[in-house]
Design goal:
The protein has 84 residues and is an all-alpha fold. It has helices at 2-53, 55-64. The protein is elongated, with a radius of gyration of 31 Å.
């Protein structure tokens, strides 16, 4: 009788753990699918922005006309003082 009760308790614990692990696996799969969807959306947005702006082409075009990038070490902030 003790072995039957111990077997029943272990079987019940196994069922509870199995239900828990299935639930955790389902939530994990849902999070992975959401992450994949958001990543694809981000890549599509990045491709759209590059097609509208096309930074590389604009940079080559600007450099061909003598544009030089800003040296941020030489930039100073000027505070305006307005008195009323």
């Amino acid at each position: 009788m003790r072995y039957f009760l111990a077997t029943f308790v272990l079987l019940l614990l196994n069922f509870i753990y199995s239900a828990y692990s299935i639930n955790v696996a389902r939530e994990y799969a849902k999070k992975v699918a959401d992450l994949k969807r958001e990543r694809e959306k981000g890549l599509v947005l990045k491709a759209d922005m590059e097609s509208y702006v096309n930074y590389r082409t604009v940079k080559i075009y600007a450099e061909s006309f003598g544009f030089s990038p800003i040296d941020w070490s030489r930039v100073k902030v000027v505070k305006s003082s307005t008195r009323e």
